[in-house]
Amino acid sequence: MNVLEVKNLNVKIDNDSIIQDVSFNVEQGEVLAIIGPNGAGKTTLFKALLGLLPYNGEIHWAPNMRIGYAPQRLEVEKHIPLTVEEFLKLQPKTITNQKIDEILKFIQLDKKILKMGLGEVSLGQRQRLLIGWTLLGDPDILLFDEPTANVDIYGQESIYKVLAHLQEKLKITVILISHELNVIYQYASKVMCLNHQNICMGKPEEILNDETLHNLYGEPKKFYRHEHQ
Questions:
Q1: Closest CA to 43 of 188, 187, 178
Q2: 83: which DSSP letter?
């Protein structure tokens, strides 16, 4: 069953054509990774899907879909007077302590972090907390805009393990923007190549090759496949 159908989507910003005639479907339980060069319209696509930008074309979500969205990063002052627990309880629905405990287990963070200041935790932990915040809304689909941007290697690995765990356990549909091609190869079920237009779409083993990546990025781009053992 398709949870999202996009047909002939066009988005202009200040008369500049950012998204041009893009069409695609997302099936329930799928992990769709969107790749492309900087400035290709990936974040603009997300904003159109979320109804944050005007567009021409068609965007059809399945009825009663609950959408969770985690942006690239959450910028906060180091000394902001807000604890992690208070941040998680900013959800617009009533959140119980039991629910927060369940989410912390999913995102693999210890309960001790709840009493820390939100500005004190590492970038990797903050990204996982963003994921947790979206999960508190019981979403059917998650949209992640480069969840590992500016996060160190250890933090990147932990975030993607969390995403894989969530998708496996909760069967949540995921749409992901990422430049981490090896991670995409391991975790995505489908890849869309976006450079203002939908350049190509298919399974990672079909899309992630030197020729396709050269056509997408406009320059040689090597990709070395790292298989799970």
A1: 178
A2: B
Distance CA 213, CA 117 (A): 42
Q: Are 4 and 57 in contact (CB under 8 A)?
A: no
Best CA proximity match to 35, nearest among 173, 228, 221: 221
CA distance 215 to 3: 29
Q: What tens digit of pLDDT does each residue of 72-122 get?
A: 767 777 888 999 999 998 877 778 899 999 889 888 889 999 999 999 998
| Boundaries of every domain in the chain | 2-217
* CATH fold for domain 2-217: Rossmann fold (3.40.50)
More confident residue, 9 or 176: 9
Give the HSE-up count for residue 28: Cα atoms under 13 Å, Cβ half-sphere: 11
Per DSSP, the chain holds a count of helices (H) and strands (E) of 8, 9
Structure tokens at 217: 């990025």
- Full-model pTM: 0.84
Burial of 199 (0-12, 13-18, 19+ CB in 10 A): middle
167/112 Cα distance (integer angstroms) = 25
Beta bridge partners of 116: none
Q: How confident is the model over 188-222, as pLDDT tens digits? A: 899 999 999 999 999 998 888 888 888 888 765 65
As given in the structure block, the two tokens for residue 122 are 């590492």
Question: Which amino acid, residue 61?
Answer: W
How many CB atoms neighbour CB 190 within 10 A?
Answer: 21
Buried b (16+ CB within 10 A) or exposed e, 126-135: bbbbbbbbbb
- Most confident among 140-149, 164-173, 183-192, 211-220 (mean pLDDT): 183-192
